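Field notebook, page 315. I keep forgetting to write these up properly, so this time I am using the form the group agreed on. The chain and the ligand, iron/sulfur cluster, are recorded exactly as supplied. Prediction of the bound pose follows.
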Amino acid sequence: MEYRILGNTGFKVSRLCFGALTVGPLQANLSPEEGGRVIHYALEHGVNFIDTAQLYGTYDHIREGIKGYEDKVIIVSKSYAVDFDEMKQAVEEAREKLQRDVIDVFMLHEQESGLTLKGHRRALDYLVWAKSQGQIRAIGISTHATKAVHAAALLPEIDVIHPLINLSGIGILDGTREEMEEATEFAYSLGKGLYAMKALGGGTLIPRAKEAFNYILEKPNFAAVAVGMRRLSEVDLNLQLFSSKIPQEDEWQKVAREPRKIHIDFWCVGCGACEKRCGQGAIKVIDGKAVVDHNKCICCGYCASVCSEFAIKVV
Ligand code: SF4
Ligand code: SF4
């Protein structure tokens, strides 16, 4: 496993970051013991970086998974909290459930622009205070938008940025892949630590996984890439992809052939863009939410590319 320094934080993180969303109730819904086993297996193989969020409901899985590695892992969490007290509660929840006095990085979840960051000023003030008290070690934001990367780059309080970026530019809210590249290079030049999300475009780039990971891994400004994993076989495959080994064709085929389906997240706003995009007539908005007909769906992922809410994933 290769390690990189995460900007000015000085944290030495594995380039493969365990994205914990997938083991939790919003996706694979593994028990804390089952999910913890997958996390633990990744740690045994050199991963030392875990990404989660208050929303994901995976603190119990992580607490199980890091047993024996408590002093070696770097954990990021995040919250949608807007005000001071809400963020205080979010940080305290993470410290309590993870049974860690100090959370390595705590973030404002899914910031869209400088304006959104201003709206979260009191939550950010809490994080600054918590850092001064040694409860967190670094402050960050996660975002799908180039504007938020630019705005956060200019904020001295922000140490880490976790932006959405991938080979096809799927999911970037306000620009192209090239514009996100430019924004992240700017942030890196100012010393921000960067690690990428959605390198596989929410699953749509799985058939081009090698190419999609190489696209990020070759960029010097990204210390790591968060990848969601649900099974030991997925950990094995990602370990090979991240160590530049070419996976055995049969291992590759095993994972590539595992059944997949389109999953609609609960934050779908029922806009209907996916319905218009689907050439198979496999997705329809019913009672304000998109519903997939799995008998018709071919898992092409095209609908994910038009969902501005990033509510569609191949799981
Ligand atoms: S495009 Fe996204 S937000 Fe709009 S209806 Fe489809 S899943 Fe929901
Ligand atoms: S994955 Fe393809 S076939 Fe399935 S709902 Fe989306 S666009 Fe339609």
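OBSERVATIONS:
- Residues 264, 268-274, 285, 290, 306-307, 309, 311-312 surround iron/sulfur cluster (ligand 1) (CB under 6 Å).
- The two ends are 26 Å apart (CA to CA).
FOLLOW-UP: compare against the apo run.
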